[in-house]
Automatic annotation (TrEMBL):
The lineage of its organism: Bacteria, Bacillati, Bacillota, Bacilli, Bacillales. Gene3D superfamilies: 3.30.70.260. Signal peptide: none annotated. It comes from Gracilibacillus salinarum. This is UPF0735 ACT domain-containing protein MUN87_04395. Residues 72-147 form the ACT domain. CDD domains: ACT_PheB-BS (cd04888). Belongs to the UPF0735 family.
Amino acid sequence: MSAKNDKFYLVSEQFLPDGMKKTLEAKKLLDTNKVDSIHEATRQVGLSRSVFYKYRDAVFPFQHMVKEQMITLFFHLEDQTGVLSHLLSVVAKTGCNILTIHQTIPIQGKANVTLSLNTNGMTSDIDQLLFELKQIDFVTQVEILSSGVS
C-alpha cells in the first residue's frame, strides 16, 4: 500500500477508467488465488501488465481500505475505579484512535465495554495489543468482535 501521507478519495465505480477497473479485477483474481501470476490475471481481464503496474498500488476496493483500519473489541471489566481509564491509556499508547466507547451500567460488580478503534496509526500488531489488554488487573475478558466492514 502507499505511504500513509497519500490522500485517497472515494469515487463511484462508474467514473473509474477501464484500466483501474480491470486492475481491481486482476488484483481480486490474485488475492483469491484464482490465478497464479500477474501475467495470467492481466490476460484474463484483458489488461496490459504496464497498466496493471501503473495502478496496482493506487486503487483498492473500499472494503479493503476500511477493513485494515477498524476493529471492534469487547471487554468484561470488574467495577473498580480507574480500570476503564487504564484500559484506554493502553489502547492509546499503541497509536490506536478510539472511535466509539460503549459501557453498560455495572451489574453485580461487572460491566461490559465495547471499543471501536481506528488502527491506522497503530505501532504494534493486534496480537500484542490483546496481550497487553489481558494483562490489566480487573479485565476478565477481551474479544475481537469484528474488523472492517465485511
